[in-house]
Amino acid sequence: KKELLESVLAAHGPGPLLRIGLALDAFVETPLAGVLGSARDPFDLLARWRRIERYYHSRHRTRIVETTANSAIIEHYQRSGPPPGSAEDLVVAAVLAALTGWLGAHGVNLDFISEEANWPALRSGDVVEPCPAVPPVACRRWRLSWSEFAARREIVPPPEAPPGRWVSTGFKLDDQTVRKVFLTVFGDPTRQLSLAQCASGLGLSGRTLQRRLAASGAGFKDVVALARLEVAARTLVETATPLVEVGFLAGYSDQAHFSREFRRGTGMSPSSFRDLTGSTQPEPA
């Protein structure tokens, strides 16, 4: 893949690679697009993108160097091995610009920056013409900016009642606080909410939430684990999503974490669970 992208850059310049990154038509129909599309704002989008990189143990990753209210300076770097090439930098930067616009940002600009120069590659989501034959600056660092943001997709509130459950763990959801935490995580498991963030969303202090959960015999981590397990189980049974993606969609940190926690919660591997329960029905909540 790297060699192919570099050959395109050498033969045709950066323009085609930027346009490849901007083409989201196929991606927006995938489950991962749903995860990114539920981001609250461009900064949440970038955080979710980085979680995808960590989940798949990508050697090349992005990090935010600096932010303002309407911009982020992003660096593309390597965890091990050789650094990403300019062609990879161009595609990743353009993908993030396209996703930012898809999420609801207007006036999306992309500038590749270095100490020596600045290359304005995209203006309002389009490639700046004429596009140079060779990138005029190193492409490992770029500024992604937007003039305003209005979410294109309505943020869906958590469901009011839990669905039929595929996972039976003896954990009760009849306590109101437990149920609210479960539904908050179940509604957006990839958001990685802390106890403090969850409490704030419920109009409680962190200490009050802990106390109420403890009174019901539950801990915050227990409820989060159950919600993730339920999302994973439903995804395995009700969709054809590849196993490698299911764990991420359910909020697990990586594939090993997913497999370990799923086996602990159900007594079987994710693949065995899919095979065994594919023709059954969930239990009532």
Summarize the structure.
This protein is of the alpha+beta class and 285 residues long. It has helices spanning 2-12, 15-22, 31-37, 42-55, 86-103, 176-187, 195-201, 206-215, 220-238, 243-249, 255-266, 270-277; strands at 60-68, 71-78, 105-106, 109-113, 118-123, 126-127, 141-145, 148-149. The strands form two sheets. Strands 1-2-7-4-5-6 form a six-stranded antiparallel beta sheet, with helices on one face. A two-stranded antiparallel ribbon has the order 3-8.
Describe this structure in words.
This protein is α+β, with helices and mostly antiparallel strands and 285 residues long. It folds into two domains: 148 residues, H-NOX domain (Alpha-Beta Complex); 102 residues, Orthogonal Bundle (Arc Repressor Mutant, subunit A). Helices cover 47% and strands 14% of the residues. The chain contains twelve helices and eight strands. A six-stranded antiparallel beta sheet has the order 1-2-7-4-5-6, covered by helices on one side. The protein has a two-stranded antiparallel sheet with strand order 3-8. Strand 4 and strand 5 form a beta hairpin. Helix 10 crosses helix 11. The longest helix has 19 residues. The termini are far apart. The C terminus is likely disordered.
Strand content: 5-15%
* Sequence of strands across the biggest β-sheet: 1-2-7-4-5-6
**Structural category:** alpha+beta
End-to-end separation: 46 Å
**Biggest β-sheet: count, sense, barrel?**
6 strands, antiparallel
Q: What is the mean pLDDT?
A: 88
**Shape type:** globular
The helix/strand order is HHHHEEHEEEEEEHHHHHHH
How many DSSP H or I helices? Answer: 12
Question: Uncertain segments of ≥5 residues (pLDDT<50)?
Answer: 279-285
- What would CATH call the architecture of the largest domain? Alpha-Beta Complex
- CATH topology name of the largest domain, in short, is H-NOX domain
